[in-house]
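Sequence in, structure out.
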Amino acid sequence: MLQAEMITEKGTMLIEFYEKDAPNTVKNFVDLSKNGFYDGLTFHRVLPDFVIQGGCPDGTGRGNAGSNIKCELTGGNQFHDRGVLSMAHAGRDTGSSQFFICHSRRNTAHLDRNHTCFGKVIEGLDVIDAIKQGDIILKVNIKESEVA
């Protein structure tokens, strides 16, 4: 089982990945994390009761990691609930490095099967609510475990 510790200025979120639902999206995020891509980037978009968004290398919401990945929308976990980690994109199959984490289900149902859900915050949900625009992702640590 793969997990990530996303350490921010406001605290740490423990993320459990949806490896079966979104293997390529998980691999992309894990590879970028292991290479330190997210370290020092900001949450450039924060919309209360909607999402916090990060992963843009230039902090504007227009940057990416230099390559695109295909959407993975058919798995059983493709619903944008509180704490769900999902791939941001500018249109189908244009995801790269930007991701968002949902505040709640209330305003996110329209994202289901349009954006790839690839994990969920299982500890540190309060950090989602504390994040403000411009807050920094200090480090993303990938944790690999044999326990399923």
